[in-house]
Amino acid sequence: MSVSQDSEAIVQPSRIPSRAMFDDLIRKIEDLDGSHQIPFSDLFTDEFMLLNTEYSSISGMIAASGFLIQSSEDFAKIPDGEWDRHVRQHSGFVSWEEMKGSAVKLWVSRNLGLQGT
């Protein structure tokens, strides 16, 4: 927003969100309502992993863990404390819950079109 010499605010029309933009945002929010099955690769993108861990991918982090993981059931069987320790040692997070929470926030932001704002 610019301020004129007489101190009145001048609103720049190009910066005012349109009704269509609000309608699109509302539609996206409604689409995100409820439970979702999000693939690890969508949640833990390579970019996310490079920025937040010592690994370039979630599969690299899993492979380096030393656990034999061939399915989501195998992953679920890993003792929470041991996986939290791996996360803590190889990322900027103190726990798996914190890492997941950060990834979910970023995923929601991307899906609402808010990334970078």
Low-confidence stretches: none
Extended strand count: 2
| 3D shape | elongated
> What percent of residues adopt helix (DSSP H or I)?
55-70%
- Provide the gyration radius in Å: 20 Å
Order of helices and strands: EEHHHHHHH
Instruction: Strand order, main sheet: write it out.
Output: 1-2
Question: What portion of the residues fall into strands of 2 or more residues?
Answer: under 5%
Summed over residues and divided by their number, the pLDDT gives a mean of: 79
First-residue to last-residue Cα separation? 17 Å
Helical region count? 7
Largest sheet descriptor: 2 strands, antiparallel
| Structural class based on helices, strands and sheet pairing | mainly alpha
Describe the structure.
The chain is mainly alpha-helical and 117 residues long. Helices cover 56% and strands 3% of the residues. It has helices at 19-32, 40-43, 46-52, 58-64, 72-76, 80-90, 96-112; strands spanning 2-3, 9-10. It has a two-stranded antiparallel ribbon. The longest helix is centred in the last third of the chain and has 17 residues, at 96-112.
